[in-house]
Structure formats: structure tokens, C-alpha cells
């Protein structure tokens, strides 16, 4: 009845249950954090704007990104994945989302930053609709916890537009 | 005695099956839990971490971590969506993915000539995360001997236990 096997089993079961419970509480505690991230993005320059040989428009641009994401970090945060996407509509597509830049923020100390970068991924349209196009720049973030539920949110900034002619 | 043992083993197996199928129903994904096998999403997901998947009718958006199958490959891949183009009238979607830790996008991983993923390639999106637990399955698939020893030991325990 009280053999070694039984005691080991009971101990293991209890340890695993307790660990699972603690993980669940840690994940749940994320809900009570107060998040108010802020961001400002400017387009500094259109480096290149052309129609590719197979007909799709491609843009290369330089962005100035200033963001403060410190409030996203809690004790259960492993990292925050942050990216800027251009979002626009075309006659063919009701939504186009093109990621332009992204970064992994490993700790709160790096969560307030300002950088100037040209787009990391190619900004290519499906078609040739980008001349004079109005688009949104959206800062998305994806919080990866040490354990538990992941969560994501975004800030949409509108009022950006591309030039009327290729250059 | 033998009959009783068979019943016991049968109960364990069926209850495991019931839990798995119930998870399938709740999450709407054909495999509700996956183990991360590669380091392509480090430092977010490491080898041996477990991901919980959810498949809903919600449209796929940039930034989401999706699990997808590529034609001609057996093992599903867990990567992040970086580009989305959604059609106006049909709602069909073109998706491009990339591993956070990879230098380039996933076009090299896709089937030859394939530029985009479509809805039917995607098995689910990752919603939750549990570290390390997946090592159990990795060890068991890579060192089958351990699996047999474990099953043998458990079997022995069931047979020898008196009550």
C-alpha cells in the first residue's frame, strides 16, 4: 500500500499538478498588466520605385521608427516580436499586408528605441497598383510568454502615400 | 486476471484517445498540439517546446504564427506570416511565411515553383506555448529503445501491482 512506487507516483503527480497550476497562474497574471505602447513612423525617403519586368510594382523606402513598448513586458514575457506592415487595398485584393521590417525585443531595456531603416523585406504588389497609392503603416506586436497564452495587438497609422510616378 | 488487465490497458488507451479527439473538436485543428522540432523560430520557440493550435474561420493575418504542410513534405512547419494578399470577391488568400530565426523567407521550403501558401496548406495557428515538455516525444522518436524500456517498465508495473 505504501510502497516506494506509490509514494514516487504520488509525489510526481502532485509536482506536475502544482507546476501546471503555477504556469496557468503566470499566464493569467498577464491579463492585469497595463499596456500603453506608443509609436511614430515617418517615411524618410523613397529609394526606388519601379515596375518589375513581370509587371509587379516594387518600392524600396526608408523608415524612421520611434517606439516605446516597455509597458508590454511583464514577468512572464520572454520576448516581444514587433513588425511594421504596409496595408492597402487594390481592385483585385481587399487586403494586402506586406511586412517591411521586424525585430525581436528580448528585454524591457531594449523596448524603447528609434531607428532608421530601409525595408528589410521586399515591398512588392500583386500587380501594378502602387502609383499614388494611399496606405496604412501598422505596428504589430506579438508577445511571447515564458509559458501560456500568446497575445498580439497593433497600432494603425494612416495617411501615407506613394509618389504618382516611378523613379 | 488477464481479462482485467486487458480492460485496464484498454481503458488507458481509450481515455487518451478521447482526450485527443475532444481537443480536436475544441480547437478545430486536426492536430491540436505540435512539438517544435527545429530552431527556426528561436529564441521564441526552441526545439522541444509544445505549441497549442487553434483553427478557426478567422482570416489569416500578417504576424500570426501558423502551422502549415507543404506538398511533398511529411513534417508540418511552424513559421510566422509576413505577407498576406486576400482576394476581393473569393476571399482566397496568398500567404508568405518566414521563420523568425531564418535569414530569408520560406519560398525555398515550399514545393518547387510555389510562391504562396493557401488556406488549405494551413493546419492552424499557434495560440499557446509550453516549454520543454515536447522533449519526451523527441527523445522517444529518436531513441526508440527508451520508448520500449518505458513501455516495458509500465507494463511490468501494471502486471505486478496487486490491487
Key terms for this structure?
heterodimer; A: 167 residues; alpha+beta; Immunoglobulin-like; 2 domains; 4-stranded antiparallel beta sheet; 9 strands; B: 163 residues; Umud Fragment, subunit A; 6-stranded antiparallel beta sheet; 31% helix; signal peptidase activity (chain B); hydrolase (chain B)
Helix vs. strand class of chain B: alpha+beta
CATH fold-level assignment of chain B: Umud Fragment, subunit A
**For the largest interface in this structure, which chains are involved and how many residues does each contribute?**
A-B, 34 and 30 residues
Largest sheet properties of chain A: 4 strands, antiparallel
Supply Rg of chain B: 20 Å
Q: Overall mean pLDDT score of chain A?
A: 89
Number of strands of chain B: 6
Catalogue the unreliable spans of chain A: none
- The CATH architecture name of the largest domain in chain A reads Sandwich
Mean pLDDT of chain B: 85
Tally of extended strands of chain A?
Answer: 9
Q: Which geometry of chain B do the CA atoms define? A: elongated
Low-confidence stretches of chain B: none
3D shape of chain A: elongated
Per DSSP, the total helix count of chain B is: 3
The quaternary state of the protein chains shown equals heterodimer
So, the CATH homologous superfamily of chain B? Umud Fragment, subunit A
Amino acid at each position: 500500500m505504501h510502497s516506494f512506487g506509490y509514494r514516487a507516483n504520488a509525489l510526481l503527480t502532485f509536482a506536475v499538478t502544482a507546476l501546471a497550476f503555477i504556469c496557468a497562474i503566470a499566464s493569467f497574471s498577464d491579463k492585469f498588466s497595463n499596456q500603453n505602447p506608443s509609436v511614430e513612423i515617418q517615411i524618410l525617403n523613397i529609394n526606388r520605385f519601379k515596375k518589375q519586368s513581370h509587371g509587379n510594382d516594387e518600392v524600396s523606402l526608408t523608415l524612421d521608427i520611434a517606439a516605446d513598448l516597455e509597458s508590454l513586458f511583464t514577468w512572464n514575457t520572454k520576448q516581444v516580436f514587433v513588425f511594421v506592415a504596409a496595408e492597402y487595398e487594390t481592385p483585385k485584393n481587399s487586403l494586402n499586408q506586406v511586412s517591411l521590417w521586424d525585430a525581436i525585443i528580448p528585454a524591457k531595456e531594449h523596448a524603447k528605441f528609434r531607428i532608421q531603416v530601409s525595408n528589410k523585406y521586399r515591398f512588392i504588389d500583386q500587380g501594378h497598383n502602387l502609383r499614388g497609392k494611399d496606405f496604412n503603416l501598422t505596428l504589430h506586436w506579438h508577445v511571447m510568454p515564458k509559458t501560456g497564452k500568446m497575445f498580439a495587438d497593433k497600432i494603425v497609422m494612416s495617411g501615407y502615400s506613394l509618389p504618382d510616378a516611378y523613379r | 486476471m488477464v481479462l482485467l488487465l486487458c480492460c485496464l490497458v484498454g481503458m488507458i488507451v481509450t481515455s487518451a484517445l478521447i482526450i485527443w479527439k475532444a481537443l480536436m473538436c475544441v480547437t478545430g485543428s486536426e492536430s491540436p498540439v505540435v512539438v517544435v522540432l527545429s530552431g527556426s523560430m528561436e529564441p521564441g520557440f526552441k526545439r522541444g517546446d509544445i505549441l497549442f493550435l487553434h483553427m478557426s474561420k478567422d482570416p489569416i493575418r500578417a504576424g500570426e504564427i501558423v502551422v502549415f504542410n507543404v506538398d511533398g513534405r511529411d513534417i508540418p512547419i511552424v513559421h510566422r506570416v509576413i505577407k498576406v494578399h486576400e482576394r476581393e470577391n473569393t476571399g482566397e488568400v496568398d500567404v508568405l511565411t518566414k521563420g523568425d530565426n531564418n535569414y530569408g523567407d520560406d519560398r525555398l521550403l515550399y514545393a518547387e515553383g510555389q510562391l504562396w501558401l493557401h488556406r488549405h496548406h494551413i493546419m492552424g495557428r499557434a495560440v499557446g506555448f509550453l516549454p520543454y515538455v515536447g522533449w519526451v516525444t523527441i527523445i522517444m522518436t529518436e531513441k526508440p529503445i527508451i520508448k520500449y524500456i518505458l513501455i516495458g517498465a509500465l507494463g511490468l508495473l501494471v502486471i505486478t501491482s496487486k490491487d
